[in-house]
Design goal:
The complex is a heterotrimer of chains A (about 300), B (about 475) and C (about 475). Chain A has 14 helices and two strands. Chain A has helices at about 5-45, 75-80, 90-120, 125-135, 145-155, 165-180, 185-195, 195-205, 210-220, 220-240, 240-245, 255-265, 275-295, 295-310; strands spanning about 50, 55-60. In chain A, strand 1 and strand 2 form a beta hairpin. In chain A, helix 3 (about 90-120) runs parallel beside helix 6, helix 3 (about 90-120) runs antiparallel to helix 10 and helix 10 (about 220-240) packs across helix 14. The two termini of chain A are about 50 Å apart. Chain C folds into two domains: about 25-160, no CATH class; about 225-485, Orthogonal Bundle (MetI-like fold), CATH 1.10.3720.10. In chain C, the strands form two sheets. Chain C has a two-stranded antiparallel sheet with strand order 1-2. The longest helix of chain C has about 35 residues, at about 115-155. Classes of the chains: A mainly alpha (about 300), B alpha/beta (about 475), C mainly alpha (about 475). Chains in contact: A-B, A-C, B-C.
Amino acid sequence: MSTAGKKRKFSSQSRNRRISLGATYTVLSLLSVIWLIPLIWIVLSAFRCEYQPDGTFIGRVTSSFFPKQFGLKNFEDLFTATYYGVPKAFPRWMLNTLFIAIIDCIISTFLVLSVAYCMSKLKFKLRKPFMNISMILGLFPGFMSMIAIYFLLKSVGLTGNPSHPEYSVVGLILAYSAGAGLGFQIAKGFFDVLPNALVESAKLDGCTNFKIFRRIILPLSKPIIIYQALMSFTGPWMDFIFAKVIIGADNAKYWTVSVGLYSMLFGTHPDTNLFTQFAAGCVIVAVPIVTLFMFLQQYYVEGVTAGAVKG
Amino acid sequence: MKRITAIMLVLAMAVSLLAGCGKKESDDGVIRVWVGEESAEFYQKIGDEYVAAHSDFGYKIEVKGMDTGSIAGTITNDPTAAADIYTVAHDNIGKLASTQCAKPIMDETLIAQVKADNPASFQKVIYSTLNDKSYLYGVPYISQALFMYYNKELVTEEQAKTFEGLQEAAKAAGTKAITVTGDDGYNMSFALLATNANDHSTTVKIFEGAESVSGGAKGESNCQGDDTVAIFRWLQAFAEDPNGFKWASPDGWDADLDKDNKGVLAVIGGAWHYNTAKAALGETNLGITLIPTFTLTDASVEGLSGVKAGDVYRGGTFADCKCFMINANSATTKYAKEQELILYLSSKEVQDASYLECLNVPAYVGAADYIKQCFEEGKVTESQYNLAAAQVSMAEWGIPQPFITGTLNTYYYSKNAPAVFRAVIDQTAYPTTGDVILQETTSLDGVRKALYLIEYLWMHGVTPKEFPAALPEKA
Amino acid sequence: MASNKNHAPKKNQEKTGLFEGLRKKCENFGKRFADGSLGTKLSHFIFGAGSFYHGQYVKGALFLLIQLGILAVMIFCPSINGTPYGWKALRNLPLNNVTEGGDFDPLTGQFTVGSDCKLMVLFGFVTIALIIIYFMVWNMNIQSSYQTDMDLKIGKKPNTFREDMRSLLDGKFHVLMLTPTCIAAAVFTILPTIFMIALAFTTYNSQDMNDLGTNLFHWNGLQNFRAVFTGEGSLGVEIKNRFMPVLGWTFLWAIFATLTCYFGGIILALLINKKGLKGKKVFRTIFIFTIAVPQFISLLAVRNLLGEYGPVNSLLQDWGITKEPIGFLGLHPSDSESLAKFMVILINMWVGIPYTMLMTSGILMNIPTDLYEAARVDGSSTMKMFFKITLPYVIFITTPYLISSFVGNINSFNTIFLLTGGGPTYTGYQAGGTDLLVTWLYKVTIDQGSYNTGAVIGIFTFLITATITLITYRRSKAYNEEDTFQ
């Protein structure tokens, strides 16, 4: 082939590549827009501030995507309004959820790590049965056992306790974190990849298993610790069914924020005029969670990938 | 491994059991009250004032706001966790009493007050039986009935008096005329309990003593009389009309009502829909009046003998009350004080105050005068007055919701009767969960069968094995 | 097939091993009593006696405490809501010893509430669990004492409590680490699951019970399971007529939801990871963004966006594409069922594709480049390389994920519950057009209180997912090669 021919071929190749790159950009931008539209709409609705001619506030879903007027009224209302007889309910729900999420995060992460480490690096008699049982238990639909958990907690006064409604929060934390240890698969996948030689050489040096875990394994496990913490921290912000049953429909003061937001839209006599307030609540809930996710993106991706490959 | 697991497990369980065993039916000096979400603050205030004024009362009062629609379910799920005093719509009384969630009221002053204050229609439905004896279970304090909200901007006061008028206005506005707030049995009462506009009698008598306050009931407890059939055929035609009846949007009936959406011009609802309706239309455009009347057409009476074209009926309603009840699981030591508290909370003066503060329409006889007086003294706005006035007049056309067989309100607790309603109005088939199947609900026979099915569902709680060979054609 | 053959003899071995073990255990019991010291003999009756005998006081005290604790519960029967634990709970378990209650003293207001059958069943199971634990600890305390006897015989000193504790940090580290999870799982997962399974064999159905005006229910054997085929009972016809359609749709949904998200994700990952593309990070961030938003927020946003009067419908009408609003999500009974089904699968792609994209991104970057170079030398086109190299590689690596996401989709509650609520409703039936088994289960139990029917649906759901998981899991590399992997 002559040099000229080569050159021509090269330039046509690069043109093809440019076209296909351009197409990719277009498709990706289009997809990005599609993916973001509903979320943008919720944010816009949160800042919507429209009134009837006579001054009544319009809080419903309206047919226009973009608000005609912007304002902070939804947020102001959200933080001052009384819901279910609880004054300033929303900030309370936020704090409840934050408290529950932090404690749940600590307990769950600890449980998951300890179980995963045992399953991955220690040999003992009941290891296989334990893995099988935990897998089988994971297959039962969660809310099947919800009612039973309620009555078990109730029999120790940790829910449905009129003199101490605040104990329900402890009950919910227990219910959330109790099952966490059975979801060890992803963390186990992580530990499996750590070379066994590390453990064995430490053993030869006379380290106890505890020391190995504490001094060698834990320092290496930062990614999986962060992944598990992230997952268990965000859980309570997203659950709107379990929390209501365990904390109780009457116990609005101790609800989590998702139960509160959900019942704003789906009461028995739904007050659809609360939609923009609901949207404002969503924004307030989503912002910290999304920020956390974005900061810890890398760990999340690692966790998800590990889960995919190990199953 | 097993050893330590078991040790910890047992310790945890033993501790928990022992912790639990100390607790008995407790009296910790607090009387807990559940009321509707919107009135929680008001009753807490009233309760605190009462405690402050009566130093011998000896209990603190703790009021919580609940979702009124699901409150009965919450109580039956775990009555021991429910409040000492709770409020439910009267149609739950039978269910709560029979499942031992409520305890009878014995205080004579309280019983006397209930007897003196409340209309006869309520007196029939606040009693339930326990061990074959009839006891007072519920103390009414709020009355509830359906009426109509409409868009004053697009509907004249005259048009709002009849369904035909609404239809005409809807045609001009390019919308549908009217919707309901939900498709359950309660909301469907506007069709089934339609009352003759002349003598105020209902066309069906769905339980013994179910007579409209002002006109009684015609016929026996049958839903397939010619008049009921004619009303439903009229409604079918009205629903078919492009400017007629519409089922509420999944976006909410208030989205339908919103002028920009061109949904409907009016909605049949209750006092608890006031704020939402106001938000949809704005207070100046919000009209409130009785449920309109409609006139039977030639087509709707075709083939029927007991009715004639030109007969006028008014859309009906249930006339209900919300009641205070005492939890059966509440400590015996609180019993006397609970009744004392209810005596006060259900007194005329507190009912009046709750109208002014929370727009709860009082249940006692003669509340209409107070409502009027409040308006004249400028204590309430015009729409707030209209609401109370419309509800009070509708209550006179209505009957209280039943609990057939003495224990149950099979009407509201569905058993699919509302789904049959829906099938009739949409003129679709009804593949029942039972043995019978309604192939169609368009023909005269189809409508009659559907109404028979509804009636049977109410009376027995199950679908019939088969339709009778000849359905009665009573007037 | 080959792997099956390998399995068969192993299983037999396990079985004979089990019988052998049992026989040995029985022999062991007799031997321990005969050969053991006085302490060991006493341990058969008083927990911890052996430990005291050997001077291990803390351990002995622990054993004794457990024995006394359980015996106290068994004998004194502490009760909650008027329902007792202990021997009375065992007596109550058959549910033939129940009282209607309802005695009322008009003078004092004293009201006697009837038996609470659900608590009777629950507490019965808790008591059985206590008894099992009692005998486990019994065995343990004898074994501990006997072991010390043996140790003494060969001249070893018995462990002090401190030494026992220390062993938890080393040789028995797994005990320390697994105990919290075992306890939590026993109390919050296993016990409740057994309880709910048991309800499938009762008449616990709040609606029926309300009708009869009673709080009582009783055991009724397999009747609820029979109702699936015969249609008897209050929800029987519902189950009989709707079970197969719902099951069918559940499978259809799971297949479509899994495949669309899977291949969609791979394609998206390929697009984002295209060579020479700038702003990879931006695009990735955008898609991760949608994962980060809680599902109940994003799905409810979509639901409202698609509402009858929502922005989408009004745009379609403004542009003249449709005249009437479209019921995308089947929220009205008259809405199209197939459209609702199509929409939930479509919207689920919106939810699920970013996950797969994230996962496959990492895998795509790890594909050995020499594979591509070899193909390029052969003159393969980009398309061909995708189908011959990329796809097989990704599928090979992510098979476990594919299976678990299939099972996950069978139980995918949020998408259906928040988008369509199971609608469009079927006239006369609870299970609507887009209801999955799991959302139907929710309606039946939480909304309707038909716990027995719910339990039946739940058990069927479990059997299906368990079968799929076990078959695939047992054949998967992850399971069979787990040991070699280490």
